[in-house]
What does this fold into?
Amino acid sequence: QVHLVESGGGFVQAGGSLRLSCVASGSTDSIYNMGWYRQAPGKKRELVAIITRSGSSTNYDDSVKGRFTISRDNAKKSVYLQMNSLRPEDTAVYSCWGATVSGQTVDNYWGQGTQVTVSS
It folds into this structure.
């Protein structure tokens, strides 16, 4: 079992920045990829950014490329999302995600989410 807790959400004006953090606890040694998803009211949850276990590879949704940066610190069991040049359309609940692998079993874990609100 893995438990993920996010922090760092809040209210910011357009053009501003926020940094989200997510700390993992539990069976963290089995965590492979981690990432951030978001869900705006009335919309489907979408993948924002993903990072591999070593941190050597990342991928972003086109809407955030060049503005958001995902990183992780395995020693601190944490993953981060630096969000710059925020836009009103970035307003959503952002959730941390982690996938564990044990043999041929993959389990997905989610945090409770943190609200990000960007005003115009």
